Amino acid sequence: MRGWLSNPYFYVAVFFSLFVGLYVSSYWQQANGKIEEAYEAYTAGENATTLAERSDAFNKALNLYKQMEEVYRPEYGNGRLYYDIGNTYFQLDEYPMAALYYYKALKLSPENVKAHNNLDVVLRKLNIKQEEHRSAFEPIFFFHYYFPLPVRLQIFSLLGVVTIILGSLYVWVRSNRLRAAALFFAVLWTIMTISLLYSRYIEPIDGIMVKASYLYRDAGNQYAAVTNEPIRSGTKVQVLGTLRDGTWFKVETSDGTIGYVSYEALRVI
Fold it and tell me: pTM for this structure?
């Protein structure tokens, strides 16, 4: 014990741990304060007695939620913030944006029944039929489609730790059971790695039309339209690429039509 107390690195480690703990605590206190303020504004909107009060309250809640989205970057969270933003857009009758954020929430939390139900309501209001695209790989890599990315990252980390521990024990003990267990978890770890690499580099990117727009033959309004009617706002499309510094998207609709649409009309899920 005295050896530790006389070691200067011990005090550095303690100071660093305290500093990190205080920083994390302050970070979450600020986040919780924003969440409570936004929730109060949202509740005030629900209880408002005039349209003006309702609009002001929900717009205040939306601004607070959007600030949190920009600061805290919830792409790897549980989807709750996206769900709350979707609800707020819904209350403001901005249904295409509500659909976008419900899709974002479901991407992180597919089991969110309320988000599913609210999305169905929004799509009915927009007169859009929701289409499910099933992959041929789904029966084999079912976890990739039913576990959101944050959960798969946690499973990946856990499998990695278990594999390393079992492999290290096998080096020392040389047990056939340990070897079999290490290989088993190594295979699972490899499969999960493939799943994460697929999500990062191969998986198709979806987008939502937040504004009705024609699809054009090339990236520009001066080109001929390839659709007879504008693509309805709220429609999900597959994003094939970006052009002109991200101001135009190359997309494919559910019926296989390929064309270009501007950034103002589309947001990536």
Answer: 0.75
